Amino acid sequence: MYPVYYESAPRRDFISVMVSKEPPEPPSKRRQSCRRVWNRLSRLQRTIICAILVVGAMSGLYIANGLMNELPDDKDTLSQRHNVFPNDNVVHVMDQRHPDKDTKANQRLHDNDDKDGEDQKLHFEQEREKKENLEREEKAKMKPKIADAVVQPEVKGQKESIVGNQEEDEGIGAAGGELEVNEEKKTKGQSQDGADAGVDVQVQVPNMEDGVGPQNAQQKAVVEAFKHAWKGYKQYAWGHDELKPISKAASDWFGLGLTIIDSLDTMWIMGLMEEFEEARRWVEKDLVLKKNVDVNLFETTIRVLGGLLSAFHLSNDGLFLEKARELGDRLMPCFNSPSKIPYSDVNLDTGKAHPPRWGPDSTTSEVTSIQLEFRELSHQTGNDKYKNAVDEVMGHIQSLPKENGLIPIFVNARSGQFRAGATITVGARGDSYYEYLLKQWLQTGKTEDKLRDEYVTAIEGMQKNLVKSTAANGLKFIGELVRGSFSPKMDHLVCFLPGTLAIGHHNGLDASHLELAKELAKTCYQMYADMPTGLSPEIAYFNINNPGKPDIEVKNADTHNLLRPETVESLFYLYRLTGDKQYRDWGWKIFQAFEKYTKVQGGGYSSIGSVKDTKNPRFRDKMESFFLGETLKYLFLLFSDDPTLLSLDKYVFNTEAHPLPIWRP
To answer: 84 to each of 81, 150, 153, 276, 277, how far by Cα in Å?
Structure first.
């Protein structure tokens, strides 16, 4: 119980001030007068005055501390943004953007004539550095690590032990288009065990060294092309999915900033750190995943989920992993179907999943080309629900009857069965099923041999049923089976296959795979070289009957070019694995054709309506996000003189060209 005080009568609170011309009283009397005034004040007035004095004193201390922190400090502020997981790599990246930064700081100190002031600054810097080190140590104790300060988010209700092992992997870049050479390398080979134990997951994240600028004129040209495309997107479509470069406007498909996320790892690899940081800020502040929009499971997975995971691995920035986990959770309702086959679409806000609007079936390549990304998400979060969902899909597809390992392009999400009589193709709606059979095997460190065996069987089926040669010059191509009959039609999308065959041979598969890869790559390049613009059509038909006619025929409805990456992707793999400069030469000619016929003045590149018309290729007013995320990335890698840049023994690329680390068994 609190005491209660009573007063006999209210007391008036006032301060009396008297002005007089007479001389002041002696000091002792003035002190007595002040004491009397203080005693006359009420308890409330005294409390208020004391509070004001305390607040004033604290404000003074705060301002003084702020002034001390404002002393010159040339440490890069980027590390403060990564205060959750301090990382040496991030600091080095920014140092390369400002190589003269420390020199200028030292010059300012030497120019200071006041030696005492100089010592004081150094003292404050040392104290501040000690404080930062203590903070980092405390945070390090609180969070498990992966690959030297990569944040491993806590999974509720689940403990995990993660071992990271970074390996040196040289990198290149082109910051600002300037040729900068940094011959210093650093090797990091430390690993850290998580504080908790339970799920024993080992992951090896290759650490790509910071970029050192373009190594040759061809790489520099590709970087300039990227900057030109980025300029148009930033000016006219920032935050939207894609740029319409002719109308200088934006277009949205899902409203997830597809171009930004698709481009994150490309910018990192090219060394465009200013652009990367700008994109990173957008992801942090403006990427809203809880929105009332229906998205396609496949496209969102390969572009957004894959892009976020790749950016996480290259930058060691936990923001990207957190966004990836949220997105993965919002895509999971797709797997709530009567069969093991996921629905094709889902609303990111409501979680309502459904088949495509145009029919009841899901596309086979789409439901079987999300495995790399969901498996990697489980690998990083320690939550197996993502991997289990996609593994069930693959297990079900493997259980269905096939024709020599080849699959129809439609499968029903309710019945779980292939559509009867559906086309068999390695092109649209079938392509990446075969690609992901091999790449899942590679991702796991070649431990799941059933996936490899399925892939080998499928390649044998292609060679038996789909591989044909033209009558005139013997160009090998991959056709289709339409209602059981062969069609000499080949999509440009099929041109991913030479690269996949080459990487399979690199990992121990039969030599016939590499030979077929070379033959198909030649055909894919010929689809460019035979056109007046030097650019490939979307679809080509091949002459297998009349030696007197051209090898390649293009119908009027198929003459468009969408800035696709598949051919330059295969050229990159073949050059990296064989060293044959012919593939570089072909890639350079393709790049020059893109520059000549698709570049838009003022910023951006546009798909075109006719590869046959050099005078009026007819801009389609659309720059696909994959032009920055895939086409320019593969061209940059093709022209690299460094075979260890994104080593094919350490990384596997998803079907949107986002590199993910290979797990070590």
So the answer is: 8, 9, 11, 19, 17
Q: What's 449-499 look like in SS3?
A: HHHHHHHHHHHHHHHHHCEEECCCCCCEEECEEECCEEECEEEHHHHHHHH
Supply the angle between the helices 497-506 and 449-465 in degrees, to the nearest 10: 130
DSSP 388-420: HHHHHHHHHHHHS--BTTB--SEEETTT--BPT
Q: How far apart are the two ends of the chain, measured CA to CA in Å? A: 69
Give the predicted TM-score (pTM) of the model. 0.71
Strands 361-363 and 410-412: antiparallel
Separation between Cα atoms, residue 656 and residue 635, nearest integer Å: 14
- Look at residues 313, 407, 326 and name the one whose alpha carbon lies nearest to residue 361: 407
Find where tokens 């203590």 sit: 134
pLDDT in tens, 335-365: 999 998 999 999 999 999 999 988 899 999 9
Q: What does the buried/exposed string (b/e) look like for 580-594 if buried means 16 or more CB atoms within 10 Å of the residue's CB?
A: eeebbebbbebbebb
Q: Is 655 annotated as a binding residue?
A: yes
Q: 532 is written with which tokens?
A: 């007046």
Predicted confidence (pLDDT) per residue in 258-287, tens digit? 999 999 999 999 999 999 999 999 999 999
Orientation angle between helical segments 582-597 and 511-529, nearest 10 degrees? 30
Question: How many helices (H) and strands (E) are present in the chain, helices listed first?
Answer: 23, 22
Q: Which two tokens stand for residue 225?
A: 């092309």
Residue numbers annotated as active site: 299, 431, 538, 566
User: The dihedral of CA 25, 27, 30, 36: what is its sign?
Assistant: negative
Burial label for 326, CB within 10 Å (0-12, 13-18, 19+), is: middle
Judged by DSSP in three states, 115 sits in: helix
b/e map 507-537, b = 16+ CB within 10 Å: eebeeebbebbbbbbbbbbbbbebbebbbbb
Tokens coding 165: 């092992």
